[in-house]
Amino acid sequence: MKTRMMIGGFVLGVSATLVTTAAMSQDPKGGGSSAGGGSGEPPAGMKMPSPEEMQKGMEVWMDAMTPGDEHKGLVSDVGTWDTVTRIWMMGPDAPPTESKGTAESKSVLGGRFIAQTLKYDFPMPDPATGAVTNMPVEGMGMFGYDRYQKMYVGSWADSMSTCLLSMKGNLSPDGKTLTMYGEMDEPMLGVRGRMVKYVTEIKDHDHHRFSIYDLHAGDDYKVVEVDYTRKK
Q1: Three-state DSSP class for residue 70
Q2: Residue 108's closest CA among 152, 141, 82?
Q3: What are the tens digits of pLDDT across the range 126-152?
Q4: Is the separation of the CB atoms in 77 and 116 below 8 Å?
Q5: Among positive and negative, which fits the CA dihedral 24, 30, 31, 37?
Q6: Residue 168 contacts residue 154 (beta carbons within 8 Å)
């Protein structure tokens, strides 16, 4: 935690220094020097913004960093959940493996993101004997709304791989379906960057469904499904 605070403080400090330096460079009476030397002029080839441009830029930045109505909608995901995870290893026409688990979602960073942790047991067949044993799986993700891009964004990592997934997309007009797109590797097939679709269905306040579709195989080729039921 101390390391994160130090890094955050460093980033804020650098940002403040850049803003202050840019503002001082616009002050003909300023005594401070710039990167261009002691004359107060910007480096060759660099055009410093005017005070008006700086003000407009700061307004855009402040708007982009302030949570909006979209973030209020994320609160419906906050809570603890029972989950049922289904994975179609042999395609959507074959029976899926199914396992139960739990999930917890929290509002973090001033309501800007939802942090989720998920735990379940994945039935894993032994390559040599074919015997099935349960492998504990743990995953975590961050989900939010990017007000500058005007898109929902997310990331996910779990103990079944060393990759970090990222996704982005938008909500349906009725506010009940969030469709996002991203890439996923298939190490067993030697495939990298396979396009996938992530769909979250808000059935009601206590029931959500998250599905993953392999777009390389087809728009409706479902490979993963997780049902969420809110714990009472």
Answers
A1: helix
A2: 141
A3: 778 878 888 999 999 999 999 999 999
A4: yes
A5: positive
A6: yes
Cα-flanking dihedrals φ and ψ of residue 112, to 5°?
-80, -25
3-state class (DSSP) for residue 112: coil
Give strand pairing partners of 207.
204, 229
Closest CA to 208 of 119, 69, 110, 103: 103
**Cα separation, 208 vs 176, whole angstroms:** 10
From residue 48, give the alpha-carbon distance in Å to each of 19, 28, 51, 56, 191.
11, 13, 9, 14, 46
Cβ distance 223 to 214 under 8 Å?
yes
Residues in the chain: 232
Q: What does the block give as tokens for 140?
A: 């975590």
Q: Tokens 């495939």 — which residue? A: 191
* Predicted pLDDT of residue 21: 41
Structure tokens at 100: 């139960």
Of 46-50, 155-159, 227-231, the range with the lowest mean pLDDT is 46-50
Residue 227 and residue 128: Cα distance in Å, rounded?
A: 32
User: Domains along the chain?
Assistant: 2-65 (no CATH), 69-230 (2.40.128.20)
Q: How many degrees, rounded to 5, is the angle at CA 182 between CA 176 and CA 183? A: 145
For residue range 76-109, what is the model confidence (pLDDT) as tens digits?
Answer: 899 999 999 999 988 888 899 899 999 999 999 9
The span from the CA of 160 to the CA of 203, in Å, is 28
Distance CA 212, CA 208 (A): 14
Tokens 């850049």 appear where? 18
